[in-house]
């Protein structure tokens, strides 16, 4: 595990190395003695950008966006007819919009990268392909917002640039709307990662302010926290920016712990997979090798980026998932893990995380079970590698209070489960606890465990007892008898399948 000091040093290293980068596509502007006195800067049809409140709150520096011509924003349009060679658009190129194979039936997807990235990234290509491959999406258009020249260090300048890129994108959307003679923007879905999530928010806000149009949906994939946490809604993405705003938080913890994602619930629906801060499969030992600047930079960025990037991995998988990807409403992640929110009902709403959340949210809205002016926070467990989707089970274990169990007495160890379905397919092997636990006769334990989906609910389980001696813990010492416990029953309740099985052991002791 890493401590606060090493994590702070790591973040400082990242910032220093980023500032040292001398990339050809870094945006630089001339500085003048009077620049700080300038409060507002205007860019023709894209309007004026202020540096006054609230743009000064919770920000160590404050910049104007770079001029549009220096940002070099490109919009790459992909459809089923042109998957490999996109049509490149500019905000006001009406002729190209008309010849870009854009089907007015839609849907229309906009995808934006974040800091240090560009529209050529493989995750964007994978997401675009998944959207175009989706059944029923024959008329879909995927438009990649490539602002790589504006996404380079320093970070504060990239933060300023997305304000202008958001407005520019709003102008493009308006021109598409106008040229295709669309009725509204209900089937426009903007998907943004990190800084790209707030860029989507600026786009949604500009569409309402300048054109009286409102995006159908914005999906924020781990929206960036630095310069955006604890700010007013004008400064960041919020649920007023589209008819439906859903958020996947995957790296929501303080920056000094290498957290880049915002923790506040800011959408209509906020998903917190695995608690929303760290993700399984992302190492958290906090170490990095002492190598050259460039190599160390890539090592550190790769380390801290894993949790942050997992949000777009989850979303891409959710487009055509191998299991329901259900998330459950609960008052806290701890309460969720304790199995206190394992039934889908009016108090614990269940919504699939990612792409298909909108359809379920609309059904809940029609049933007056959700308020569009408030937020729903939901939790889910995932795996540490692809496919990430898991199914959730509330597991209750009762240690027998029989005479045999009492004579044997309490014991310390771990219980593991492997589920079997009606076709004798086995799930993965899971422990009820990460560490050894004290089990006494009559004790009942309850918790939530996520397994790989076999395609059917379980009908049986393989239960195993694991015991390890710890020389420093007298409770684990065994001299005259073997380590074991007597189980009265194990109850397995499925959230996804809505089933409940109480299994009694065919052997004793375990």
Automatic annotation (TrEMBL):
GO terms for cellular component: extracellular space. The active site is at 194 (nucleophile), 222 (charge relay system), 308 (charge relay system). Ca(2+) binds at residues 236, 238, 241. Pfam families: Lipase. GO terms for biological process: lipid catabolic process. One of its GO terms (molecular function) is metal ion binding. Its main location: secreted. It is found in: Secreted. Coiled coil: none annotated. This is Lipase domain-containing protein. Residues 40-359 form the Lipase domain. The keyword Secreted applies. SUPFAM superfamilies: alpha/beta-Hydrolases (SSF53474). Belongs to the AB hydrolase superfamily. Lipase family.
């Amino acid at each position: 595990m890493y401590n606060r000091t090493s994590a702070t040093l790591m973040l400082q290293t990242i910032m220093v190395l980023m500032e040292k980068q001398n990339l050809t596509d870094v945006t630089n502007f001339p500085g003048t003695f009077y620049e700080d006195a300038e409060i507002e800067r205007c860019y023709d049809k894209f309007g004026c950008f202020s540096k006054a409140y609230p743009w000064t709150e919770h920000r160590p520096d404050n910049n104007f966006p770079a001029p549009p011509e220096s940002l070099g924003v490109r919009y790459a349009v992909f459809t089923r007819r042109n998957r490999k060679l996109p049509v490149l658009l500019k905000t006001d190129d009406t002729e190209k919009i008309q010849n870009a194979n854009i089907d007015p039936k839609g849907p229309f997807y906009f995808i934006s990268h974040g800091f240090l990235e560009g529209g050529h990234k493989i995750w964007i290509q994978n997401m675009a392909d998944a959207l175009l491959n989706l059944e029923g999406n024959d008329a879909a258009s995927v438009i990649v917002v490539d602002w790589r020249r504006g996404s380079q260090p320093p970070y504060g300048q990239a933060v300023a640039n997305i304000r202008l890129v958001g407005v520019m994108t709003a102008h493009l959307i308006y021109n598409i709307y106008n040229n295709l003679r669309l009725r509204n923007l209900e089937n426009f879905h903007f998907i943004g990662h990190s800084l790209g999530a707030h860029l989507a928010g600026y786009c949604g806000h500009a569409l309402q302010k300048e054109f009286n149009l409102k995006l159908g949906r914005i999906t924020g994939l781990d929206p960036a926290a630095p310069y955006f946490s604890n700010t007013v809604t004008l400064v960041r993405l919020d649920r007023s920016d589209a008819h439906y705003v859903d958020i996947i938080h995957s790296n929501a913890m303080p920056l000094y712990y290498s957290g880049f994602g915002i923790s506040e619930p800011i959408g209509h629906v906020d998903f917190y997979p695995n608690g929303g801060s760290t993700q399984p499969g992302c190492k958290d030992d906090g170490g990095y090798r002492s190598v050259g600047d460039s190599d160390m930079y890539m090592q550190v960025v790769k380390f801290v980026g894993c949790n942050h990037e997992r949000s777009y991995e989850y979303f891409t998988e959710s487009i055509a998932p191998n299991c329901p990807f259900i998330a459950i409403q609960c008052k806290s992640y701890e309460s969720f893990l304790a199995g206190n929110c394992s039934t889908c009902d009016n108090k614990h709403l269940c919504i699939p995380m990612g792409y298909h959340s909108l359809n379920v949210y609309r059904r809940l809205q029609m049933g007056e079970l959700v308020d569009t002016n408030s937020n729903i926070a939901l939790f889910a467990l995932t795996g540490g590698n692809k496919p990430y989707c898991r199914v959730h089970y509330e597991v209750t274990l009762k240690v027998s209070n029989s005479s045999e169990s009492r004579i044997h007495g309490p014991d310390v160890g771990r219980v593991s489960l492997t589920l079997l379905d009606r076709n004798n397919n086995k799930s993965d092997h899971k422990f009820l606890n990460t560490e050894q636990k004290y089990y006494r006769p009559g004790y009942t334990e309850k918790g939530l465990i996520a397994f790989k989906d076999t395609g059917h609910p379980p009908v049986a389980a393989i239960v195993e007892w694991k015991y390890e001696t710890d020389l420093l813990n007298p409770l684990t010492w065994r001299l005259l008898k073997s380590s074991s416990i007597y189980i009265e029953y194990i109850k397995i309740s499925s959230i996804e399948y809505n089933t409940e099985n109480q299994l009694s052991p065919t052997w004793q002791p375990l």
